[in-house]
Amino acid sequence: MNNAQKIQAGFDIGNIHAAATPVTFDVPVIFDADGEAVAGLTIVGKNSEQYRVANNAVRAEGYKKSARRKTAIDASTDEGAELLVQAIDGNQKRLALAVVTGWYGFTSNGAPVPLNPALLEAAFEKYPTWQEKVTTALENESNFLKL
Predict the structure, then answer these.
(1) What pLDDT shows up at residue 11?
(2) How far apart are CA 106 and CA 40, in angstroms?
(3) What is the distance of C-alpha 42 from the center of its chain?
């Protein structure tokens, strides 16, 4: 039974008082010729400390910028629309980077490479679909419910 099926069966209210344990989810990003995942990113969900800290920082910085501008971004202009897109894209990237806690299948000269935030950010730049996959997985709460 997968998490979605367990959710349909009901939620044990005792889980509210259970100690919080990090729940991770693997997001495959590279596949072999047979479609099997060979490399991917391990992420935590929106209930994690990593996400909450990053989300709070993004929101606080947004309020500070808005207060300094003393006006909202005018998205009806080309310049304003571009600023808004950049802000949204930057915030999404920061949140996606914050929730990646590990990776698997990444090597150098045949040896596993430990997660490196700078390399991860470079990977998101080169392969924007990887960031999109993380964001999509992050939005699916059933990926992170431990039932």
Answers:
(1) 66
(2) 8
(3) 10
Neighbour-count burial for 32-49, b at 16+ CB within 10 Å, e otherwise: eeeeeeeebbebbbeebe
Give the per-residue pLDDT at 85.
Answer: 73
Tokens of 90: 């930057």
- Structure confidence by residue, pLDDT tens digits, 27-85: 999 999 999 999 999 999 999 999 999 999 999 987 887 777 666 777 778 887 787 77
Which of these, 54, 2, 47, 53, lies nearest to 24 by C-alpha position?
47
Task: Name the percent of the chain lying above pLDDT 90.
Answer: 57
- DSSP for the chain? --HHHHHHH---GGGGTSPP---EEEEEEEE-TTS-EEEEEEEE-TTSHHHHHHHHHHHHHHHHHHHHHTS---TTSHHHHHHHHHHHHHHHHHHHHHHEEEEES-EETTEE----HHHHHHHHHH-HHHHHHHHHHHH-GGGT---
Distance CA 124, CA 130 (A): 6
